[in-house]
Write a structure and sequence with these properties.
Layout lengths: L21 H18 L4 H6 L16 E4 L2 E4 L13 H42 L14 H5 L2 E4 L6 H9 L5 E6 L2 H10 L10 E5 L2 H6 L10 E6 L9 H7 E11 L2 H4 L4 H8 L10 H18 L3 E11 L2 E10 L1 H5 L1 H4 E7 L5 E5 L1 E6 L2 E6 L16 E8 L6 H13 L5 H13 L8 E2 H8 L6 H10 L4 E3 L6 E4 L3 H14 L11 H6 L19 H4 L36
Parallel strand pairs: 3-4, 3-6, 4-5, 6-7
Antiparallel strand pairs: 1-2, 7-9, 8-9, 10-11, 10-14, 12-13, 15-17, 16-17
Amino acid sequence: FFFFFFFQAEDGIRDAQESRGLGDVYKRQVMRRACASLTLHSNPLLQLRLIHPPIRRMSASTPKTEVREGRAHVRGIEQNAVFYNPVMEMNRDLSVIAIQIFQRRFAQELRDNAVAKRERAVVAREARIAKGETPPELDDPRPHPSMAEGLRVLDALSATGLRAFRYSQEIEGIGRVWANDLDPAAVEAIEANKILNPDGADKVEPSLSDATMLMYNRRGPSDQERFEVIDLDPYGSPGIFLDAAVQSVGEGGLLCVTATDLAVLCGNHSEVCHSQYGSMSLRNSHSFHEFAIRAVLASVESAANRYKRHIVPVISYQADFYLRTFVRVYTSAAEVKMSPSKLAYVWQCHGCGTSTLQRVGKVYTKGSAKKFSPGTGPTVPQECEHCGRSHNMGGPIWAEPTFDPDWVQDAISELDRGSYGSGDRLEGLLRLIGSELPDVPLYFDLSMMCNTLHCEAPPLAKIRSAIVHAGYRVSQAHTKPLAIKTDAPSTLVWDILRCHVKDVPLAKPPKQKSPAAAILATSPSLEANWSRTAGAVSGKRATGTVGFVPNPEPHWGPKSRATGKKRSNPGDDHAMSEQ
């Protein structure tokens, strides 16, 4: 008998149907397999050879008719008519916390700015009086809209309105929340769910609109029209919404962005990543999850730069099948000039996977002036210094910190004061993020490095101790248990692994001309010190909290796209709710 197998890649471009995330891919795979079984059913010989095991659904739980999460209560999710995924509870919990932190900080900043503006006006008036002029009395500065009305929040892709109802009821002093969706079935569900959430119903404004058009109509020219907070939580890539979002969020406002297309961002389809985010992703990268975060941040920064704006990330993380980032958006032509120096290309060895960054631009001082120029490179030789293989080039990615340690600590404190459904997972995640080195882009995946050498993986504390004794900083990464972030050069990390292989020899010699053979052929330039240090402790022993909490349910992952409701009138696509 002869067997033939045919494989087709999900590249998200060649198909006429748009692929918006892993859940969509899985759903379409199920449909294709079902069609294949029907087509081949008439041929008994092929039928016996092409029997597939049952395919498990990727939803996190059995279908429900209603959901209670936080203080919110929603219905309308039966038969997946309106999208809902319980996996995103941690996403929503942290969003509530982040907006609460932002609300306090933003209000204090507005008060400080008003005082400083008043002081400048007084000094200018006194200077005019000293010249013999008679200036008019000073008027009180016009207050920011949020000071009188509370924060204006846009939940741009609201589905059931669960996120919007949580914001309206759990964030004290919030002003108005627009719960927008393009699907009439979703907006109908939001309207119906207002009855179930009386405490926050008056603050939630259902909106049937194209999210980008809604944001474009609120893009300025002043903060009187803009939102203080915009939340983008799409099914797939947020790329098409970023241009409108960076214009319609107010000065110093908070932009919350989710991306669920990690297959694209982590290197499976680098050409799709470039079309969506302007960055080439790298396959088999040691740091692919953090690379994904930084690629999205670079895309948001690029969108903001077109309008003389720039971003400051405050919290960013990757969990389950998605990533989430919270950034503040400011206007400053001078800071926009700094943007190329905040981005970097990534050179990745094709053999051992070692990554090296090359900044897109650089800043230097000439006399008293600050100058800007393109970055210099390449920062790697033609062949990898470790294994002799060639390099792939990816990016650009964001190369500055992806989080603010003060924000993370505030989030942990806020989490302790409240009650959240994902509290244990969220606390472990936040403590891992807070322990990361913020100024070190990307990480080393020890499991992948040991796989390259075909050696037994050493205890994490052993490697961390050796790095600390060599005079460098080291921390654990929040994305993988065996990933470390360190300011040590890659040559030192490989030297430490060479020392480990000397102590724990390989079961058999590596193949000739393999990356392992090339790396181990070089003697280590130092003798690793394995004695345990305080900085080597990680995980629960370091933070007191379990960092990597197991998933609460089996098949914890993405969910198929909602069935929705077809529009009867094409013109409804541009219908705007009453503002």
